[in-house]
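Why predict the complex rather than its parts? Because the way molecules touch one another can change local conformation, and only a joint prediction can capture that. The input here totals 508 residues.
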Amino acid sequence: MIELTNVHKAFGPKHVLSGVDLNIAKGTSMVIIGGSGTGKSVLLKSVLGLIRPDSGTITLDGKDVAKGDRDAFLARFGMLFQGGALFDSLRVWENVAFRLRHGKQTLPKHEAREIAIEKLRRVGLKPDVADQFPAELSGGMQKRVGLARAIAAEPEIIFFDEPTTGLDPIMSGVINDLIREIVTEMGATAMTITHDMTSVRAIADNVAMLHGGKVRWSGPVADLDATDDPYVQQFIHGRAEGPIESVR
Amino acid sequence: MILTAPLAAIGRPVMAMLAGIGRISIFAAQVVSHILRPPFYPREFFAAVMQIGWFSLPVVAMTALFTGGALALQIYAGGARYGAEAAVPSITALGMVRELGPVLGGLMVAARVTSSIAAEIGTMKVTEQIDALTTLSTNPIKYLAVPRVVAAVLVMPVLVAVGDVIGIAGGWLVGVNQLGFNSATYIKNTADFLQFWDVGSGLVKGAAFGFIIALMGVYHGMYSGRGAQGVGTATKSAVVAASVLILASNFLLTRVFFGS
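Output of the joint prediction:
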């Protein structure tokens, strides 16, 4: 279980996180929603240790993520970055197999390549993509490669940062379905940040809405439409009028 | 308030500069501390050797050739005032191997390589590739910085040595074809005059400049600001810092080697 307690983070005078409390149960899919600049990415990167919170605690299975063996901690995670974050200088299969080739237990090249091709197939890409460079692929294909890299080492926990941003609606649907399928079949704990409501409904077991540096609302995805929280209602229906605009 | 404003205006950039020196020093110490600790990345190391060494050969060779030629002309013109034209081979060789070979070679490689490293790693930073490395349990300093710094320290003395030879050859070409020197005498004068430490000091300088060239590129790339403007600023800062540090460290090394 991932547990965040009273997490604060400021960049200069700007307070991005102002006391975030959140629990993500093992094997569930949590989606964090919220407007741009509400600290969703900062929250996700804080859990991974890419950003150090100013105060508060973040624990994984009861252990503080800031302490202990970093490599062992990160080995439990897979992450799909918003822009893919594929390494330009490496071929697609080398990107997918990066952890397998550079981790503590390094696999031989042919073995790592086979696993990479299998993972590419799992995300709907043909083996001939394996020897291409990321720049030769479309945005949707890059996202799939990023997904294949995130799941290559079969992590227990997978983070998805804006998985459908920049994709057309059909490709967004494909990526959403893939994420749902993979998370379910791997039994992984997932944390996704997005403002795409189609993604929320496709991926989430639970939803948390971040606003004003705090979790404004959280609960099962089935309760999302029924809540009378005006912030949530404005956000999920994309209304220009409402409390969020007045805050902006 | 009015009285302290000028002091604050001076103090702020001084504090910023000291903070920058501190950050770079800590970064350099981190890089050095990782050099002998596994894991090692041989593929990245050999790619850096090619990028920094092999592909810099043409620019270093051309710089050295023209500098050697110009140096011979200047020494001949200056020497003629004292009837010391015969000093052209020895002074050209000395100037090339002690100073101009390493310094101009270092500056040219800094322009070519520091900018390229800073832009590449800066782009990796803004496209979250460095964060991706971290999440894949790979230390960015080990993977990106160490191979480039080690490669630069090892290949720069080789580039300097090649530059020395070509620079002396440039002087010889001018000396023989334009200034009327006998070819064999020119070569003999050069070979007889140069001592081991003349060449050795230039190679040590080359290694030091290699460290600066790669370190500035990696450091400014990894601490690049956001977007295209951030990468552009990082690239510019990297080249300026590398160039100034090369010239400053050249003075210090020259003082240490030959000051007495």
